[in-house]
Amino acid sequence: MSAVLDRPVTAPPAGGACVARPDLMNPNPGDALAVDTAVETCLSCPVYVRCLDWVERLPADRDPGGVVAALTEAERATRRSSRLVAPAVPAATARSRTCTRCEQPKSPEEFYPYSHGWCCDCYRAKALDRYHRLKPAAKRREGKAQTRTEKPCSDCKKTKPIEDFARNRAHRDGRDNLCKPCQKTRRQARAAEARAEMAGCGR
Fold first, then answer.
1. Bridge partners (DSSP) listed for residue 59
2. Which residue in 120, 153, 168, 179 has the fewest CB atoms around it within 10 Å?
3. Closest among 104, 109, 105 to 94, alpha carbons compared
């Protein structure tokens, strides 16, 4: 059995920045700006690391949904299925530890299992610094997507309103290169080819 199942599931840590803010922490997955705002709220939260430890130990059927500990529901599902959480240190044998980054002695509760010797505060500071270094590029893409009103379709070559293109964060303007009608036509063509292939196989 994995170590995840061996550790008890406790209540979420108190004092979080997301308390009584369900609208902020449950953004539309397609709204990149709203998701970024929720992620930034988590990374600046004083209990971010403890919240991450808590939510990763929850079974899938008890996941709270939305953005928790700077992770979307899909990201948490991926981490939960691929990562084993180290077992907690029993309170009776716990001793003080020294953070290898700030070199300050702290209690075991102030260390995260994946910090590799770093305390919770140092781990959160590193995550927040990385997020703010990557944030400007994401904001520029979001701003470009909001100011652009139309674009050409790479399939039918027609220039159409930006609303005729599905959202796609992989592109610089935040929209897909194919308009929605062309995407639908391609899906129908692929489905017809699949049906024909299955019929040819005698299925």
1. none
2. 168
3. 109
